[in-house]
Design brief:
By secondary structure, the chain is of the alpha+beta class. The protein is built from 3 helices and 4 strands. A 4-stranded mixed β-sheet has the order 2-1-3-4, with helices on one face.
Length: 92
């Protein structure tokens, strides 16, 4: 995945309650950083090969990809405020 902007990728599944809890925070930061950050969501049930490419074994997992490489990985729930703090250093 190559983009001039950093990309936040949210790995989730329908059966994952913490993933559903995290979704509003991900959607909020997508809006907050619109134009500076791309956001993608990967349903691991519909895209079974993608988690293996990034060694994803636990949900939810967030990746920040910059310059085509993973620059940050966060596993588990995270608050919106902490998600913002995680993203901001990657915005340049």
């Amino acid at each position: 995945m190559k983009s001039q902007q950093p990309v936040l990728v949210d790995f989730w599944a329908d059966w994952c309650a913490p993933c559903k809890t995290l979704m509003p925070a991900v959607e909020a930061v997508a809006e907050q950083f619109k134009g500076r950050l791309r956001v993608g969501k990967v349903n691991v049930e519909e895209n079974e090969h993608v988690p293996f490419q990034y060694n994803i074994t636990t949900l939810p997992t967030l990746l920040i990809i910059k310059g085509g490489k993973v620059s940050e990985q966060r596993v588990g729930l995270i608050s919106r405020d902490n998600l913002v703090k995680l993203i901001e250093p990657h915005l340049g």
